[in-house]
Amino acid sequence: MKAETFIIKLKHDTGAVRLKVVSLSGEQGAIAQVLKNERCPESAISNIRKAIQQ
Q: How many of the other CB atoms lie within 10 Å of CB of 11?
C-alpha cells in the first residue's frame, strides 16, 4: 500500500473549495472520504488531480 495525495475541487451554491486528501485506496478512496466527511453528492466534485510529490 502506498499513500497517495489528491486535490479535489468541490462546487457548492456559494463558490468552490479545494481539499487535499491522502488516501491508501487510490482515487476512489479519496472520493469516498470527501463524500462522507463533507456530506455532499458526487455531482459536487468538479475536478480531481493527483498532487505532485516532492
A: 14
Q: DSSP for the chain?
A: ---EEEEEEEEETTEEEEEEEEESSHHHHHHHHHHHHHT--GGGEEEEEEPPP-
Stated pTM of the model = 0.86
Q: For CA atoms 13, 11, 34, 21, give the dihedral sign.
A: negative
pLDDT digits (tens, 9 = 90+) for 5-52: 999 999 988 999 999 999 999 999 999 999 999 999 999 999 999 998
CATH 3.10.20 is held by the domain 4-50: yes
Domain edges within the chain: 4-50
